[in-house]
Amino acid sequence: MKSELQVFQDYIRRRDLRRTRERERILQEIFEIHGHFDVDGLYLQLKQKGVKVSKASIYRALPLFIDCGLVREVDFNEGHWHYEHIYGHSHHNHLRCLGCGEILEFENPGLDHLEEQLARQYGYYIKGHHLQVEGYCPGCRQAIESPA
Amino acid sequence: MKSELQVFQDYIRRRDLRRTRERERILQEIFEIHGHFDVDGLYLQLKQKGVKVSKASIYRALPLFIDCGLVREVDFNEGHWHYEHIYGHSHHNHLRCLGCGEILEFENPGLDHLEEQLARQYGYYIKGHHLQVEGYCPGCRQAIESPA
DNA sequence: ACTATTATAGTAAATGAATCTCAATAAAGA
DNA sequence: TCTTTATTGAGATTCATTTACTATAATAGT
Question: In Å, how far are A41, A64, B96, B133 from B93, measured between CA atoms?
């Protein structure tokens, strides 16, 4: 399998963009993160390692990573976007606790069928889907059902 | 079935909040809207009817409507939130065209089973889910596949 | 109905994520 | 190496949303 860097470089070439240290460093950092991240966290993480990259560059690079399928947006309703790298992972969805914010991942192959059905039914070319299930984890559930 | 106003008034009482003309007028307006809306649109619509309600009040009222199950957030990736009233409607999901922004609604009862399964598997109390499928409608699909 | 209490409204200012401007830099091809 | 031009960083800007503050008005208790 191609590395994420190769995927990105192919994309850069295809789009007649330019390879830059900044973009590739950001990409590397993203793939070192286990789990989800947001722009601020990514920026701080780079800063702590002494990597000089501006937030503007991060904001500018993310749409490229998304466009070539390496990263996707994940909304956790916190007023700003979260992201995760998806290259090399099987597609998964999120179960989020509204109390503590815990995120669990689960797969649901049934959604592939749904996509096919929608494509047939409406003539759409389906690019993908976002599914997020919300609720309360065992701990938070208890806290809500029997408040102190 | 209780009216949406009754649902809201019950909620207000339960939460020890106060009934106000503004909140009830905003609620009424939302339920007169067919389809989705955003804060700006709702504000203008009220303004055109000569109803004096501030945007701040709209922003403050929406979380209440959401909390009592009358309204839900629907994000259409346009840099701000969209909403829809859901009381009295069967649950539905959205198929969105990334080209022209068209929104189609569809139902998927299979997700109820998914919720039950997740509840069992992780011990969660499930509140609900957001599913959005993205792609290109027949028209936009053509425009992309064979650019002028 | 009157009064006291306090949630809520409106206005304007503040916040904060994301985008844009612009001059300086650096990547890619000739 | 030279030229062209995409990209960067810094800061300014935009715009949705939230907040602070004061006046108003809803509720509960007399």
Answer: 31, 28, 10, 8
Q: Chain C: nucleotides under 7 Å from a protein CB?
A: 7-12, 16-21, 26-28
Domain end point (choices A63, A89, A115): A89
pLDDT tens-digit profile of B78-127?
A: 889 999 999 999 999 999 998 888 899 999 999 999 999 999 999 999 99
Q: Which residues of A touch B (CB under 8 A)?
A: 75, 77, 95, 97-98, 104, 106, 108, 110, 114-115, 118-119, 121-138, 141
B5 and B50 inside one domain: yes
Number of domains in chain B: 2
| Listed residue (B92, B102, B91) closest to B134, CA to CA | B102
Interface test with B, best of A74, A78, A91, A95 (most B CBs within 10 A): A95
Residue B107: CATH number of its domain:
3.30.1490.190
pLDDT in tens, A8-45: 999 999 999 999 999 999 999 999 999 899 999 999 99
Q: A122 with A107: CB under 8 angstroms?
A: no
- What's the token pair of residue B70? 């009358």
> What's the whole-model pTM score?
0.90
Are residue A36 and residue A61 in the same domain, yes or no? yes
Please report, for chain A, how many H helices and E strands are present, in that order.
6, 5
On whether both B13 and B30 belong to a single domain, the answer is: yes
pLDDT tens, B20-77? Answer: 999 999 999 999 999 899 999 999 999 999 999 999 999 999 999 999 999 999 987 7
d(C-alpha B118, C-alpha B110), whole Å: 13
Each residue of A110-129: pLDDT tens digit? 999 999 999 999 999 999 99
Domain that holds residue B36: 1-89
Check CB contact under 8 Å for B114 and A108: yes
